[in-house]
Automatic annotation (TrEMBL):
GO terms for molecular function: hydro-lyase activity. May play a role in fatty acid biosynthesis and insulin sensitivity. Belongs to the enoyl-CoA hydratase/isomerase family. This is Enoyl-CoA hydratase domain-containing protein 3, mitochondrial. GO terms for biological process: fatty acid metabolic process. InterPro entries: ClpP/crotonase-like_dom_sf, Enoyl-CoA_hydra/iso, Enoyl-CoA_hydra_C, Mitochondrial_ECH-domain. Keywords: Fatty acid metabolism, Lipid metabolism, Transit peptide.
Length: 260
């Protein structure tokens, strides 16, 4: 049996997770979600991982939930609730992971696959990639994908995708803020891993603080967000890496991070 999810970590601390079920369009079956959850749980405390790249084998990034699996469980409300709850928790694991996550998108990302892209901190796509939340076309509104989508793009752009179910190009996805960059497919890996290496060269402790604070402050009123981030910055300054970084900058040398 093909391993659903492969994992590889290079010498730069970049861990690549690859959805590896192309014959199933890399769908988020319960088994795939379990594999992702297990990997993310392990990576959260893995000191060798500094950045995660999330990609997929084949010509489809992820087609969302496995509709055959859902069809076979149409009479089981318990399974349906468990599936969507598991998916929601995996998306939150991506957001809450104390390491940056970059989506490497080649091919199509639809429904929960689009949700997965939106849940990543950064996303780079090949110019041939396409995106959609097409649940409305089959009578199943993309309600859980809507959560991640609406936190990445404006309300009207999100509603257009959700209400029409139409596919959008990578260029359009970049325009509305769903992804960061569109590149020629031949340049996808170079672009993704250059970005990953740049981030991996920063203080891991600082990245953890910053990523956590970013998502926390988004949900706060303005004054509360400033109070919260002022405290975060003061706390950050107590870290060894902050002190090393400031001294290195003033002394015009490269900092030596200890991730503490």
């Amino acid at each position: 049996m093909t391993k659903l999810l492969t994992r590889d970590t290079d010498n730069n601390g970049i861990t690549t997770l690859t959805l590896n079920e192309p014959d199933q369009r890399n769908s988020l079956s319960m088994a795939m979600l379990d594999a992702l959850s297990e990997a993310l749980t392990d990576i959260a405390t893995d000191d060798t991982t500094r950045v995660v790249v999330l990609g997929a084998a084949g010509n489809v990034f992820c087609a969302g939930h496995n509709l055959k699996e859902i069809r076979d469980q149409l009479d089981s409300y318990e399974f349906q609730l468990a599936l969507f709850d598991k998916c929601s928790k995996v998306m939150q694991q991506v957001v809450n992971l104390p390491k940056p996550v970059i989506a490497r998108v080649a091919g199509v990302a639809t429904a929960a696959g689009c949700q997965l892209v939106a849940s990543c901190d950064l996303a780079v796509a090949a110019d041939s990639a396409r995106f959609a939340t097409p649940g409305v076309n089959i009578g199943l509104f993309c309600s859980t994908p809507m959560v991640a989508l609406s936190r990445n793009v404006s309300r009207k752009h999100a509603m257009e995708m959700l209400l029409t179910g139409e596919m959008i190009s990578a260029a359009r996805a970049e325009q509305i803020g769903l992804i960061n960059r569109v590149v020629d497919e031949s340049m996808l890996d170079e672009t993704v891993y250059t970005m990953a290496r740049t981030i991996a060269g920063k203080s891991g402790h600082t990245l953890k603080i910053g990523k956590g604070a970013f998502y926390q402050q988004l949900e706060m009123p303005l004054a509360e967000a400033y109070d919260y981030t002022a405290q975060i910055m003061a706390d950050n300054l107590q870290a060894d890496d902050a002190r090393e970084g400031i001294c290195a900058f003033l002394e015009k040398r490269k900092p030596e991070w200890t991730d503490s």
